[in-house]
Write a structure and sequence with these properties.
This protein is of the alpha/beta class. The protein has helices spanning about 10-25, 85-105, 145-165, 195-205, 225-240, 255-265, 295-300, 305-320, 325, 330-335, and strands at about 5, 25-30, 50, 65-70, 110-115, 170-175, 180, 185-190, 190-195, 210-215, 220, 225, 245, 255, 275-280.
Length: about 350
């Protein structure tokens, strides 16, 4: 079995990735900043190590030889930042990534996987024309994502340099919103805590309340599930696709109306289904579609989860909460939070 180190394994995508790679036959080592995973990964036959990507000595707890791939998902995200602390992005995304790269070179890793943000092509939002994987980066310089984009782009340039100098393959994933289950139904916007849009609608649907749809109900975007994302990462380790940037997506865009209708069907009350109230005076949320032709052609990727299949699997994950030992319960995150509206 080839050994793969997953950094950021206690995060959403990192955790699902570690579990999936173990399931398909890799020897996985899960690493995270948390002191303890409460024995979660051991339940799946995966060793967990606590380490800090900003501490070079911390890498000594990881395997020091025979590492095939490094999956670098460790990061600080604007959506999880309480307040606004831009230096944290510089430290994590630039200094931390260089430490990870030095480790990958030292252990002779052949593959390196790293996510970048779709916000780096914000100027191409608002169109149904698919955004190509090689689209140049350009984004607003006055948002809570600006420094995040700048540092992510710098990290990608550094990765490309290391790959050219040391001869490993690198795969950079352009991340849009990757939907998955986590008991935390909140996020931070401009440093303030609030319900995520989807989880707020789920709660309203459960209570049979009216749900307000803002803007154009026919506006479409990809709704991409984490279990297709982990499939792409698997293929980055098992195929011979060329190094570079790869978009994620499923080529099955869903309108805003269809999104809410699906949530009502899967999560709503059968005796009192929610009504959808359209408010065209409110702004649309940004929409975009990513061109995944390169991901299909180079990696052999085939999307498996359409929107309704994803929602039913999401509901199942919510009901069994197999991540409770690692992430806790929803009530751990919602105390003192206003009802979703």
């Amino acid at each position: 079995m080839k050994t793969v180190v997953v950094l950021g394994a206690t995060g959403k995508v990192g955790c699902y990735t570690a579990l999936h790679l173990k399931e398909v036959g890799f020897n996985v080592v899960a690493a995270g900043h948390r002191k303890s995973d409460n024995g979660f990964f051991a339940d799946y036959g995966i060793p967990y190590v606590s380490m800090d990507i900003l501490d070079e000595k911390s890498f000594d707890v990881l395997p020091q030889k025979d590492v095939f791939g490094v999956i670098h998902m460790a990061a600080t995200l604007p959506a999880t930042m309480d307040g606004y602390h831009p230096k944290v992005f510089v430290e994590s995304n630039i200094n931390g990534t260089m430490n990870v790269l030095d480790y990958a070179v030292r252990v002779g890793a052949e593959r390196f996987v790293f996510p970048r943000t779709v916000a780096d092509v914000y100027y191409l939002y608002g169109s149904q024309k698919p955004i190509p994987a090689e689209a140049p980066s350009r984004f607003p310089l006055n948002s809570d994502h600006s420094i995040y984009c700048i540092t992510k782009n710098a990290a990608c340039d550094i990765i490309e340099h290391y790959a050219a100098k040391y001869g490993f393959k690198y795969y950079i994933i352009r991340f849009a919103n990757v939907f998955c289950y986590h008991p935390n139904p909140t996020m931070f916007k401009d440093g303030k805590k609030r319900w995520t849009g989807q989880r707020a609608i789920i709660e309203q649907a459960k209570r049979g309340e009216d749900i307000e749809l803002w803007g154009d109900p026919e506006c479409k975007r990809d709704v991409f599930y984490v279990k297709d994302c982990t499939q792409i990462i698997e293929k980055m380790l098992t195929t011979d696709g060329e190094s570079g940037v790869y978009n994620i997506g499923n080529n099955m865009p869903v309108s805003r109306m269809e999104q809410i209708q699906g949530l009502i069907e899967v999560f709503g009350r059968k005796d009192k289904p929610s009504r959808i109230v359209i408010n065209r005076n409110m702004p649309d949320s940004p929409n975009f579609c990513l061109d995944i032709s390169k991901t299909i052609e180079q990696l052999g990727y085939e999307p498996r989860y359409d929107y309704m299949t994803y929602l039913r699997d999401l509901k199942h994950e919510m009901e069994i909460n197999r991540f409770e030992k690692l992430w806790g319960k929803e009530s751990d995150y919602t105390e003192g939070l206003d009802d979703p509206k």
